Amino acid sequence: MTNDLFTYGAPGTYDADTTDEGNALLTDEAFATYAAAGLNTVFLGGNNGYNHANAFSGSQTETAWNLALKNGVKRIILHDDKISNLAQHTAEGMLIGANGKYASYDLLVKDVQNWLSVYYQKEGFYGIRLGDEPAIGKAENFGYVYRAVKEAAKNLGMEDIYILLNLLPLEYSARASYAGADDADMREAYKEYIEAFVLAAGADEICVDSYPFKPDGNGGETMLRGHYVSLQVLAEVCKENGVSAAFVLQSFEMVYRNGYTTNGWERITSANDMCMQVASVLGFGIEDFSFYTYVVRDDSSDTSYSSGEGSSFVNKDGSTTDIYTYAQGAIAHAKAIYPVLNQVKYNGSKMMVSDSASAYGALYTSTYSYVNATEGINVAVGSFDNSHEFVDLVSVSNDNSIMLVTEFVGVNNVYMFQNVLTDAYATALGTKTMKVTAQFNPTYQKALVYTFTANGTAGTWQTVTLTDGVFTADIPNGLAVYVMPYNF
What we know:
The chain is 28% helix and 25% strand.
């Protein structure tokens, strides 16, 4: 894992009218509140990005940048229109070559270097974003631009530059963007999608966003099918290719308007559901996480959905919400867990569904399929891969829930046991807490244990005694326990 766990958020990163929330964020209070949550990096995009049409000095981008640093944010990720547009270049499908926008890669590097030179020396500059959720057909262009940014930064004397390359989740509406092989399954197709960008870019970190809490259309809520398969695939690709990962978490609600019923997201309604996201990300060895979004979104140009007061971190008047408090507590846990997880690497995972929770099992262990006869695509349902063999964990069981178990390897191995039932499902089943019984190698006499709670207060690693290598714990829904068995 990285030496500095960081989270970044997205104040003003979506397109908004000048009378809308974008300008309302340009205050000392907005960024001070952001930093007080434990966040240390901000992504300036949308109307706070930079397009080179006017001078950087005095621009809205510089205003937002200065306010962020003044009020406790340490690092800036910038959306640069020129660079992002190149990554998403579609004219004739070519970026480099005789029929492309650039005759040679060197000319691309030259332009990127000129654009970076405008702001790269400004305090707090950390990196840029290439674009958001590209389809697999854009992997080559994203790869060219990713490499060009790295090279241009080195030419300018920068030791390193962070590049935010945010890819699609394994979600129903996105399937066509990566499903390209007949008779493949969706897990395989998604893995090929992630790998295409890693290999094209020679990336050192990739990012995915996935928002798991959805309305079911009947006044209730459901879990995004494939969310946990997406996390597992991302962790697997990172392990196999030696790259790091970031993940964007859901911290907002969308509500419908004008009769729309097919889009939108359900609000995170409890501390447990927020902790569920953060604990899962940490459990897969994902080093950096962020939140979408930071402020109430009410974009008047969008006719299908908006959000109301209390539906994100901060309301329009600057007041913080319950969601903000939930995130603040989860971030505090992440920072407390991090020093131990920083010493190990993700190695594998399993999803275990008890009989009593089987009604929800498929939502956690399988994906959607995709069939398009016109394109000759027939991609079958994919599944969470449960073939991993643990090193020190002989067996593990839970009595009444859905449990995610992940393994980290190092000088001493670490295991995460998480109750991944959402609040709604746990309530429906009447199983708010699961009992875990883990049998480690019987030679282990002690373990370091971290208990992830939902009370907003970070804990500490505690030493417990194991009897013949057996560990037990009662874990509420959404929460997790991290265990490092040892003999020293």
